[in-house]
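[stage:ingest] chain + small molecule (zinc ion)
[stage:ingest] validated
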Amino acid sequence: MPLHLPPLSRRRFLATGLAACAGALAWRDALGAEADADRWALLADTHVAADRERASRGVNMADHLARVVKAVADLKPLPAGAILNGDAAYLKGEEGDYRLLGELLKPLAAAGLPVHLTLGNHDHRDNFRAGLGRGAARSPLASHQVSVVEAKRVNWFLLDSLDRTNATPGTLGKGQLDWLAGALDARSAKPALVVVHHDPQWTAPAKRSGLVDTERLFEVLAGRKQVKALIFGHTHRWRREKREGIHLVNLPPVGYVFDKDSPSGWVDLRLGDGGATLTLHALGGHRQDGVRVELTWR
Ligand SMILES: [Zn+2]
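[stage:predict] done
[stage:export] tokens:
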């Protein structure tokens, strides 16, 4: 999309505010009174099915999301917001998947947290809107749903790499990359954190299961020194790398893993001067639960 689900008490205000600001949200508008402006909850790959009892690879996806939502809603201080980075739905992005997703996310709205969602390859643009039924921000692009969330210390750039629903690779396209370049140039003073569902890949183009236009994305990102991190999901693996000084953060899935050794869960991001601390919150007693990673900005 992204879609933005504002906190319950602020929904009416934001409904008008969103339409007016055409894809840019200001943190002051969205920040609850008890929230820490430098704390963000990062989620990806929830794969929630319409059937609440549905399990895949031994995981009930609705249960996993409910546990993560409770953990985030109970944080003290609360984060400024949560980002759900694609593959919110099970496989084909059915309307019922999004209805249950909306139900499961409600405690975040009740706690005062806005939730920002991007689309993955198992999502469906129209069903997403219909199923969640609220919070759709007008995108500055007709072809893709993109937006900028202007936070206190950083700007978040939320991209849309959905190409075809239930086909694995993703792409951004020239129009979206041109928009991104302009949006970054208009906001050079604060660190930029770029969020996209698909993983960057520099393998042979024919073999890519992730972001097909990775090189073109990096042509946009590398020379713009405000870009500090690229955050993605898709692989269902918790990994970090660095490329051109830009941190590559692969979020774990909230739902199931493909590789039994990998954790499922979510990431607590705390921003500071010159960097951020990531804390992995793994489900099911995984040995990596609580692991911290320090990111220093280039
Ligand atoms: Zn996925």
